[in-house]
Design goal:
This protein is of the alpha/beta class and about 350 residues long. It contains 13 helices and 14 strands. The chain binds adenosine-5'-triphosphate (ATP) and magnesium ion (MG).
Length: about 350
């Protein structure tokens, strides 16, 4: 199994991404980072358990992993909200513990709402954030207006954030990071609660920001999001690295994994059980379409597809390579969290 290979030889897959600006130092450097939470009467949690990685300037870096993997904790350490228990992290060249204020001036963060922000209006949220980052008055007003326009917030400008729906609150948070030009942006599950149109617009804005040289670090549970956005991906589980690389490198990890989609006129009753018996990584039926991913030889996959197709009238067949989701499932299989 892949995850075992990685357990014994962590970091075997190196990123293929090179810094956009040649030899310049990375935007983030993390060495043997550890964060332990002590719990009364229970064993401590090693939320981050010896992570080392660096993030190239101007890249979009995705931190992925199942629930409880340590993504938010890692982000909280990098953004100076939590002190690490061990190891080191430098952001924009500054140590997150020794030079926390220098780090804060250079980052914009979407992690969680601060209670104080909820009491401010949408407009004041944007203005006070811009002020903290030293924007001049006229720039501040103009930026706030344009950001509210882009995020569909104009008609809510005068409302207190606490009175907005969850999706709109998220918009305000993400809008803030676009008020300023900090070299680094951190986003924890930015798309939660966003409708698809807005999500698309935000993804475009993030790409634009990265092209302009900003470094973006994001976590997400939506793998297609990472697949579309990230130049470089770190998959963690239980606070440790499971895999690291760009999408191409990660997909190589799951070589031999095929995604099959078969659409019948009417789904023959036995095909689902037939696929399930082969131990697929995933299987799903929607209407008369059967989709599954499976690790096998190409020839066996094609034979299987032929066999299944012979069970009924097939309207459409697709066989493709693995998606990031397949890689993820493959890496996590057997890695059940026992905490
Ligand atoms: N303040 C805390 N006190 C005790 N344990 C904590 C604390 N914060 C996080 N943990 C634990 O640390 C581990 C990692 O949590 P973290 O929130 O970083 O995971 P995550 O990858 O962000 O998960 P999710 O996908 O659910 O957001 C979990 O086991 C969690 O219960
Ligand atoms: Mg989290």
């Amino acid at each position: 199994m892949l995850h075992r290979e990685f357990g014994e030889n962590r970091g075997a897959v190196r990123t293929a991404v090179t810094p956009a600006s040649g030899m310049s130092s990375p935007a983030i450097e993390v060495e043997h980072l550890v964060k332990v939470f002590e719990r009364r009467g229970r064993p401590p949690v090693r939320a981050v358990d010896g992570l080392s990685f660096s993030v190239a300037k101007g890249s979009i870096f995705g931190l992925l992993g199942p629930n409880g993997a340590g993504k938010t904790t890692t982000l909280r350490v990098l953004t100076t909200l939590t002190r690490p228990t061990g190891g080191r992290a430098r952001v924009a060249g500054y140590d997150v513990v020794a030079s926390a204020l220098d780090v804060r001036r250079r980052i914009a963060v979407v992690i969680q709402e601060h209670a104080a922000d909820l009491l401010l209006t949408v407009r004041d949220n944007l203005l006070s954030f811009g002020r903290f980052h030293g924007l001049a008055r006229d720039v501040l007003r103009a930026r706030a207006a344009s950001v509210m326009e882009r995020f569909g917030l104009v008609e809510h400008a005068g409302r207190k954030v606490q009175d907005l729906s969850g999706g709109f609150r998220r918009r305000v948070q993400v809008a803030k990071v676009l008020m300023v030009d900090t070299p680094l942006v951190f986003l924890d599950e930015f798309s939660t609660g966003m409708d698809p149109l807005l999500k698309r617009a935000v993804m475009d804005l993030l790409r634009e920001a990265s092209r302009a040289g900003r470094t973006i670090v994001l976590t997400t549970q939506v793998l297609t999001e990472a697949e579309e956005l990230c130049d470089d991906i770190l998959i963690i589980n239980r606070g440790r690295q499971v895999a690291r690389g760009d999408l191409h490198a990660l997909k190589l990890l799951s070589e031999g994994v095929y995604e099959v989609s078969l659409t019948f006129d009417a789904l023959p009753p036995e095909v689902e059980a037939e696929v399930a018996a082969l131990g697929p990584l995933r299987v799903r039926t929607t209407g008369s379409t059967l989709q599954f991913s499976i690790k096998a030889d190409e020839r066996d996959v094609l034979a299987l597809v032929n066999r299944l197709a012979a069970r009924g009238h097939v309207r459409r067949v697709e066989v493709g390579g693995a998606s990031l989701e397949d890689v993820f499932v493959e890496l996590m299989s057997g890695g059940e969290d026992t905490r």
